[in-house]
Design a protein that fits this description.
This protein is an alpha+beta fold. The chain is 37% helix and 25% strand. Helix 4 crosses helix 5. It is globular.
């Protein structure tokens, strides 16, 4: 299994909206994913995305984490989208690109694979530094 990162948003995002977003950046619905698991690919690297239903029970009990997210979001966190990062040559950048594209539509923070919480500006800067080839194709 690959590494995991999370998109955390202060807005309600449903599975249909997540799907439309993934399709807009070349993603697909994962077979057997229960209608709520999507994939995005670039070369030999995949990222799988799904809205976490356990968000309310697992993450909201970590007050420090929630407060850090809320401070950046200027609102309480409402939805978490887990990104499972597959192995490959772009495993450290594809999920950042996905989060950056997501941030163009929704108010988010990114909890990266090293468990750092990144603001939209930090996501954009990191994407500009690490995802040049991905950005040139969008």
């Amino acid at each position: 299994m690959g590494l995991s990162a999370s998109i955390i948003t202060s807005e309600f995002v449903c599975s249909k909206e997540l799907g439309e977003f993934c399709f807009s950046i070349g993603g697909w619905l994962v077979e057997g994913g229960g209608g709520g698991r999507y994939g995005v690919n670039n070369g030999d690297t995949n990222v799988w995305l799904a809205i976490q239903s356990e968000w309310m029970t697992e993450m909201l009990y970590d007050q420090d984490f929630d407060n850090a997210c809320a401070k950046i979001l200027c609102a309480p966190p409402k939805v978490v989208i887990e990104m499972e990062c597959g192995r490959g040559s772009k495993q450290d950048s594809l999920y950042v690109y996905v989060a950056y594209m997501f941030s163009k539509k929704w108010n988010i923070v990114l909890c990266d694979i090293d468990e750092r919480i990144l603001s939209p500006a930090e996501i954009e800067a990191r994407c500009a530094a690490e995802c040049g080839d991905l950005l040139s194709g969008s």
